[in-house]
């Protein structure tokens, strides 16, 4: 998706740390959607936005939630999150662009250092409730997600997919702002 004409499917499988069989299964699905073209010499992306939106449509954010809880002072909690976390979703887009297309009442983040996160939780123990969660700690076992994140923020495609999967009234203004900023994210 970064300008390489053709990428061998074995290279994709190796980079993603999955089997070639699984890679071929996903490639067939992407071919059916006219998002990629697979040939003897590898895979060529035809529509990056279509690939991204297919990923977003299948993303199950709830399956990655490791811990969820509620803190009433959401802005204060967001400001004090440990630096070892990787923000995604709404607050990540706001930090990446300085724009807030809509108010949001949920924060999603990937936990890369559980001891630091546990200390943060322990310090706020009396302010945390379990009902009606607004903070979602996502488990991360994907080295690619970690390597593509910078300064505690997930990469833009990951942020897009996580906002899409979060669902809710605040998602549409964020997704619209992202597509206006990066037209190649739109379905072609």
- Average pLDDT figure: 91
Contiguous uncertain segments of 5+ residues: none
Question: Cα-atom Rg, whole angstroms?
Answer: 18 Å
Secondary-structure-derived class: alpha+beta
- Bin the strand percentage: 15-25%
Distance between the termini: 14 Å
Q: How would you describe the shape?
A: globular
Helix content: 40-55%
Record field, number of beta strands? 7
Trace the largest sheet across and list its strands: 4-5-7-3-6
Number of helices: 9
* Major sheet summary line: 5 strands, mixed
How many discrete structural domains?
2
Strand and helix order: HHEEHEHEHEHEEHHH
Write the topology of this structure.
Blueprint (H helix, E strand, L loop, with lengths): L8 H8 L3 H13 L3 E4 L2 E4 L2 H11 L6 E7 L2 H6 L6 E3 H9 L9 E5 L2 H10 L4 E2 L5 E5 L3 H6 L7 H11 L4 H11 L7
Parallel strand pairs: 5-7
Antiparallel strand pairs: 1-2, 3-6, 3-7, 4-5
Give a short summary of the structure:
The chain is of the alpha+beta class.
Q: Would you mind describing this structure in some detail?
A:
By secondary structure, the protein is of the alpha+beta class. The chain has 2 domains: 9-46, no CATH class; 61-185, no CATH class. It is built from 9 helices and 7 strands; from the N terminus they run ααββαβαβαβαββααα. The chain has helices at residues 9-16, 20-32, 48-58, 74-79, 89-97, 114-123, 143-148, 156-166, 171-181, and strands spanning 36-39, 42-45, 65-71, 86-88, 107-111, 128-129, 135-139. The strands form 2 sheets. It has a 5-stranded mixed β-sheet with strand order 4-5-7-3-6. Helix 1 (9-16) packs across helix 2 and helix 3 (48-58) packs across helix 8 (156-166). The mean pLDDT is 91.
């Amino acid at each position: 998706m970064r300008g390489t004409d053709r990428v061998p499917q074995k290279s994709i499988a190796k980079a993603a740390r999955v089997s070639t069989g699984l890679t071929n299964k996903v490639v067939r699905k992407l071919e059916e959607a006219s998002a990629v073209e697979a040939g003897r010499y590898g895979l060529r992306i035809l529509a990056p936005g279509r690939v991204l939106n297919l990923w977003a449509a299948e993303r199950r954010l709830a399956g990655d939630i490791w811990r969820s809880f509620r803190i009433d002072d959401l802005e204060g909690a967001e400001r004090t999150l440990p630096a070892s976390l990787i923000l995604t979703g709404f607050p990540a887009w706001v930090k990446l662009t300085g724009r807030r297309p809509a108010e949001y009442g949920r924060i999603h983040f990937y936990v890369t250092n559980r001891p630091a996160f546990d200390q943060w939780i322990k310090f706020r123990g009396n302010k945390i409730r379990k009902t009606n969660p607004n903070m979602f700690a996502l488990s991360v076992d994907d080295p690619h997600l970690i390597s593509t994140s910078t300064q505690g923020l997930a990469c833009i495609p990951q942020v897009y997919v996580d906002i899409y999967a979060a669902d809710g009234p605040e998602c549409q203004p964020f997704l619209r702002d992202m597509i206006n900023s990066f037209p190649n994210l739109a379905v072609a």
